[in-house]
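Appendix B, Record 12. Input sequence as logged:
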Amino acid sequence: GGKKVRLPPPSSPFSLGKAVGISSAAFAGMASQMMNRLGGNLIQDIIPTATIWPVTSPRHPPPQEGMKYKLGDGGHQDNSGLLPALQRKAKRVVMFVDTDVPISLKMDFCREKPYPMSELGTSVTYYVIDKFGIAAHSEGGFTLRNQVFHFADLQPILCELQTHRRAGRPALVERQLEVLQNSWWGIQGGWKVHLLLFYLDKSRLFEEQLPRETQEEIAKGDKGEFAHFPQYSLMYENKKSLTAFTKPQVNLLASYVEWAVRENDAHFRRALAENPGRSRTLDRRQARA
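Logged structural output:
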């Protein structure tokens, strides 16, 4: 790092195509772990690699040499994008959890007695609970060092998400959370973040407003065009395609998220306003214009 460093041109440019490919290399984490177990470089060739130079700062002064890294899907470490925001000490964060894992309805998160960590591992998707210290080694995953919030703050959040889900409303929760120091990620602790978390899950109130033919198609479940809506499968949602969705599937999902945001616009305005006391609610006529 440094202002006076000169670098020779790369042997091949780092193209947009390579970046897109690396960002979806979901196999890389598991392949890397498998290679470590088997030894040697048996499957090294299928894992993207590149030399990465650190971004220097007063906390991490130059010079620092570049290092070669194995690269893969960002979800191997953090599928939320929250950790980079906390690295920058963003005081207000809106976190969209676009997952295919529903909020568990098998447990009562609103009960008075707190659940231990061991019983909340399947409460919601892994990249929410890992921020509160619940993480386990998994094939292709590296989430054991992702805690940035107190575990005690988790169950009240789960309670509110579950309450909205049971009532048929969009599941979201707004909190002021104390940030814990995380040396692994370079996150400073001892300050608070205003977090608005939107969790993608079913909403009865939204579905009741859809045209009858759309409701009937959703009701067909796995046999209909909108199987798993709104939590489409990440792979093979449509049998003849690995990851693609149909236009009706995409449009329905986009309509749902837009409706959910507009129905909760006061939360979003408060979470993003520089002066929360002066945030105003969006006029419904403007919202539907």
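The longest helix spans residues 247-263.
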